[in-house]
Amino acid sequence: SQQGEEDPQALSIQEGENATMNCSYKTSINNLQWYRQNSGRGLVHLILIRSNEREKHSGRLRVTLDTSKKSSSLLITASRAADTASYFCATEPTSGTYKYIFGTGTRLKVLA
Amino acid sequence: DADVTQTPRNRITKTGKRIMLECSQTKGHDRMYWYRQDPGLGLRLIYYSFDVKDINKGEISDGYSVSRQAQAKFSLSLESAIPNQTALYFCATSDFGTTGNEQFFGPGTRLTVL
Q1: Using CB atoms within 10 A as the burial measure, which of A67, B1, B17, B89 is most buried?
Q2: What pLDDT score was predicted for residue B11?
Q3: Minimal Cα–Cα distance from B8 to chain A, Å?
């Protein structure tokens, strides 16, 4: 069964706007990671947040984690056309260390 | 990521045929994974291996088998391919050590079973 589900499934914004996508999961986790996938290609790691952290930043990316709600959000600020991709969250459950369970993804389209 | 390669990149085969997908890595990682991706379902774990002598089933291992020939090589086989195994297959690696290691993905193999 799918551990993580992203919301929304698809998002279309104008260049320069912020993009926010959310991930909900079901079980306790050690950490949560966000990945980007350009059309049909392999996933690329963006950022990791551990279960004892609430917020992480990396460049234009901001990730939050709320373990009480079992949810995370990824914010991309000042989006660019090159940010057009699918974004996936991946969780490492405490019951399955070193295994990663991916969500269903959010397809982001940034219009120039 | 050029450090993780997959062959073939595309494959069309017929129902009942045996297919092998190969993955090689030069990252020196101990952990290797096979995933399949279907539209709207994200990535699902098929098998994973934490070292040469360690093989574990993932979420959807039925109809698949794997072989870890060396630290750098991890192959996925479909013994008798069926149409619902049509998907995009990814190999990934991660380093040994603490939890939360980044996974490095290969470019994927697009498999079509007719």
Answers
A1: B89
A2: 97
A3: 14
Structure confidence at residue B104 as a pLDDT band (50, 70, 90): very high
Task: Provide the shortest C-alpha distance from residue A87 to chain B (in Å).
Answer: 10
Comparing CA positions, the residue from B108, B61, B110, B63 lying closest to residue B86 is B110
End-to-end CA, chain B: 30
| Span A6-61, pLDDT tens digits | 889 999 999 999 999 999 999 999 999 999 999 878 899 999 999 999 999 999 99
Q: Which of A35, A40, A50 has the CB atom closest to B100's CB atom?
A: A50
Contacts B101 to A, Cβ<8 Å: 98
Interface size between A and B, measured as CB pairs under 8 A = 68
φ, ψ (nearest 5 deg) of residue A45: -70, 135
The full 3-state SS of A11-36, as one line of letters, equals EEEECCCCEEEEEECCCCEEEEEEEE
Is there a contact between A88 and B43 if contact means CB atoms under 8 Å apart? Answer: yes
**Chain A neighbors of B110, CB-CB under 8 A:** 40
